[in-house]
Amino acid sequence: MAEKKNYYYAVGRRKTAVATVRLMHGKGVITVNGQPSGEYFNNVALSKLIAVPLELVSKAGALDAVVRVEGGGKRGQVDAIRLGIARALVEMSEDYKLTLKKAGLLTRDPREKERKKYGLKKARKAPQFSKR
Questions:
Q1: Which residue in 29, 54, 107, 129 has the fewest CB atoms around it within 10 Å?
Q2: What is the pLDDT of residue 2?
Q3: Which residues neighbour 67 within 8 Å (Cβ) at sequence distance 6 or greater?
Q4: What is the residue-wise DSSP string for 3-35?
């Protein structure tokens, strides 16, 4: 017999941001680092992006998310949280996988910052060249 879990856990990453997500049954409250998501990101657009996976599977008002996120900037953190929530939903039920995959929410964005090379000012920017 399968036992019912208290929460579903997943990790999402983007650039240098790492988000650990715990989804549990509740009233639809998303808490980021101990604060409500709207308060933590203080940007309505970013707060709405976090809830996209929950809205796609129509669980926005039925699940609470407790998120711990570190590293990166605010946008990278939002994308990491979004991936973490999507992965936790798949952990909850495989039925959501097709819907989330079609929306592109289960794909980790592989783009990272390129390292600086010696002799250059940045990863590719060379010092100004003067012929004379």
A1: 129
A2: 56
A3: 19, 20, 21, 22, 30, 31, 32, 33, 37, 81, 84, 85
A4: PPPS-EEEEEEETTEEEEEEEEESSS-EEETTE
Length of the chain: 132
Copy the structure tokens of residue 123: 């990863």
Query: What is the distance between the alpha carbons of residues 84 and 59, in angstroms, rounded to a whole number?
Result: 15
What span, in angstroms and rounded, lies between the C-alpha atoms of 123 and 119? Answer: 10
**86 DSSP 8-state letter:** H
Q: How does pLDDT run across 2-27, given as a tens digit for each residue?
A: 567 789 999 999 999 999 999 999 99
Match 């390292």 to its residue by tokens.
115
- Beta carbons of 19 and 11 less than 8 angstroms apart: yes
For 125, counting Cβ atoms within 10 Å of its Cβ (0-12 exposed, 13-18 middle, 19+ buried), the class is exposed
Please provide the distance, in angstroms rounded to a whole number, between the alpha carbons at the two ends of the chain: 81
User: What distance lies between CA 77 and its chain's CA centroid?
Assistant: 6
Can you tell me which residue has the tokens 């794909």?
Answer: 107
**What is the rounded distance in angstroms from the CA atom of residue 82 to the CA atom of residue 70?**
14
